[in-house]
Amino acid sequence: MKFLQTFDLLPFLDTAAAFTAAFLLGTLIGAERQYRQRTAGLRTNVLVAVGAAAFVDLAQRIAGTTEAVRVISYVVSGIGFLGAGVIMKEGMNVRGLNTAATLWCSAAVGACAGTDMLAEAVLLTVFVLAGNTLLRPLVNMINRIPIDDRTTEATYEVSVISSRKAMPEMRDLLVERLEQANYPVSDVEVADRGDDTVEIVATLVSTAVDPREIEAVTAFLERQAPVSDASWDGSTRD
């Protein structure tokens, strides 16, 4: 049997230690994710860490350090597919980015274990857990700070509901009034709203705005006879 020819007790014990470390450290990271009911929980993080350790350890035993480095680069890119699977977009909100980043870190922990850098794997696990737990109060504190629209860089849209016949005139007037207020327009779209009405949406260049200035523009447009409604909205892009 070829197994008897290739089996070597000391390298086997070394691999076992690497897998065990990846399993235990992945469990610590995954337990925190499972407790918070995240998409990628305990089992996912453990499997990512152990899988990364297995691939890196296998490459190192077969072809040495050079191939191990190459496999690590494949692990880094390959984990992106799992990360993309837990990221969800709901309207203007994106969920799962932190979970995807945690999976990425679990793969790094496994890669460290697979290259026998167990102390580094433990240290990285400590930092991952600290990032997901100790920084949470700071995040909550920052989120409670009121946002000043004048200092926030975001994407803003100004919308005008107009009669179809007056659309060209109202579109030009919308762009003109925004540019007079020093808010350049990056794009203008016109959508059919039925009943002989259209919606004209002007997207501003990503910038900071003074809400009073934008409201002055929409108030002026709303006073125009062909316009039934004028409004604006903004969303951050980060």
Q: Rg from C-alpha positions? A: 28 Å
User: What kind of oligomer do you see?
Assistant: single chain
What is the distance, rounded to the nearest whole angstrom, between the alpha carbons of the first and last residues?
Answer: 58 Å
Secondary-structure element series: HHHHEEHHHEHEEHE
Got a strand count? 6
Sheet of most strands:
4 strands, antiparallel
Give a verbal description of the structure.
This protein is α+β, with helices and mostly antiparallel strands. The chain folds into two domains: 8-143, no CATH class; 149-235, ACT domain (Alpha-Beta Plaits, 2-Layer Sandwich). Helix content is 61%, strand content 18%. The chain has nine helices and six strands. It has helices at 2-6, 9-35, 42-63, 65-86, 97-114, 118-133, 136-143, 167-180, 211-222, and strands at residues 88-90, 93-95, 155-163, 185-194, 197-204, 227-235. The longest helix is centred in the N-terminal third of the chain and has 27 residues, at 9-35. The model has no long low-confidence stretch (mean pLDDT 84).
